[in-house]
Every structure is written in C-alpha cells, then in structure tokens.
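Cross-check.
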Amino acid sequence: MKLNRSEQNPILSANPKNEWENMVVLNPAVIFDDQRQEFVMLYRAAGDTEKHYIYLGLATSKDGIHFTRQSDKPILEPDYEGADGGCCEDPRLVKFGDWYYLTYASRPYAPGRYWLDVPKPWIDPPQSGPAYLKYNNSATFLAITQDFRHYKKLGRMTDSRLDDRDVILFPETIDGKFVRLSRPMNWAGKGFENEKPAIWIAYSGDVLEWGSPALLMKGETWWESKKIGGSCPPIKTEYGWFHLYHGVAEKDDSYRVGAILLDLKNPSKIIARTKDPIFEPEA
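Predicted model, tokenized:
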C-alpha cells in the first residue's frame, strides 16, 4: 500500500496579504461537514515575525482539493496572557453529537524562530515555577464549536509536566469511554519500555480528565528510529480502527507515514501494522 500525491498540490499556500499567515501554512485538520456538505479545514499558520506566534485559519472546499479561505483573520489564536499564550497549532477534529471537538497543541510562550539559534528574551519564566513555563513545554488543549467560527476553549487535557502533543480523539466512545492517543516526549528512555518517544493510549469518561495512559506502540524500524506520533483521527472500518501515524528517522530527520489497524472493541490491541512507510518525502 502506497499513498500518491495529488497533481494539484499545493492545495493551500501562505498568504502574503495577511501578516499572521504570510510565512507558512501546514498541518491542517480536515473534516466533512454533513450539514453544509463541504470539507472544512482548520490550518496552522504563522507569519514572518520575531516571536512567531502560531494561529489557526479556516478554509472550505466542495471537493476536498480546491479550498477557499473564509476569513482574513485567525479563527483561533493564543490567549496572549493565558496558558495557551504562545500558539494554537496542529489541530485535530472529531464530532460528537452536534459539536465538533478540536484538540490543539500550545505553549505558554511564543516559540520564536525555533529553527534558528537566536535569543528569545520574552521567554523569562520563574525557575522555581511549573515545568510548563520553565521549559516552554507543549501541552494539548480542547475547544468545541458548532460553526467553526466561534469556539469555547475548555482548557488543558494533558499533563503540563510533560511535553505532550499529537493528541487525537477517537470519533466515538467505546464502552462509554472517550479514547485518546498522545505522544509524551518525556516518557522514553530509562525506566520505560520504549527507548524513544512513542504513542500512548488513555481512556476517560469526561474528555478533559484522563486515566493513566498505557504504551500502545513504539518505533520498530529504521524510519521510526527517532520518534513516532499519531497523525489524524482513526477511521472506523469493518476490520478495525484504521489509523495513520508518522515516524521520524534518525538518519535523515525526515517524517514518513505508516498505518495501523486497532481492534474495534479494544483499541489498545493492534491487529496489523505496516512495516514500510506508505508515504515519504520525495528526493
């Protein structure tokens, strides 16, 4: 099994007219809205600024390929004086009843140009304070919406002491429990079964408060040798929950895509897993 690139790529590009998205757009969540009969995309965006705040924008499409922006402003942005003050990024969407549930990663401080070795004087936490501030950790937050334009932020849904992202909700409850995948960066190495960051699974009756996560899977092959993480919400099939995940290789630091099939009634059980990547960078 291999995934093929669309000849119509890119389907969305940075917008030089808006400062908040004039540098990059990436890592979107896409869901089909049955009521409006259209694909809805929430995309991560950032401008070419020193602090590099990260936002979510909104675009829609009738065919899943040709997307049109719906606003010149972000539809979700950091609460600059709050816990998600640095960024709203890497969204995932699922629907429960009449509400869409959005998970997004954030940090307390704007990350700055993290690909450059430059000072970030605005990151000045108390050294005796919480780890979330001290290390500018990633945590994952939850918001809900019915129209993709107005959101109720519900707060943090991962442990602030962990650098935990790639948080994905299953699109339905199982035995009355919400199911979550995540990738806590700190839970690896000495004292853990996994040498490198891996995918963990947890269950909850509340969606904000979670039981103790258990290791679901760890990297096994060369293209997963640095870390793995979930990519998008699982799809329910007659054979099991079909889930795409990503692996990062030590040798080239590149991201590649694999797939797993999880048991419908017990998603902690892996039925099948691809050995080779099904999608990878082109030379």
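The chain has two domains: 9-161, 165-283. The chain has a mean pLDDT of 97. Passed to J.P. for a second look.
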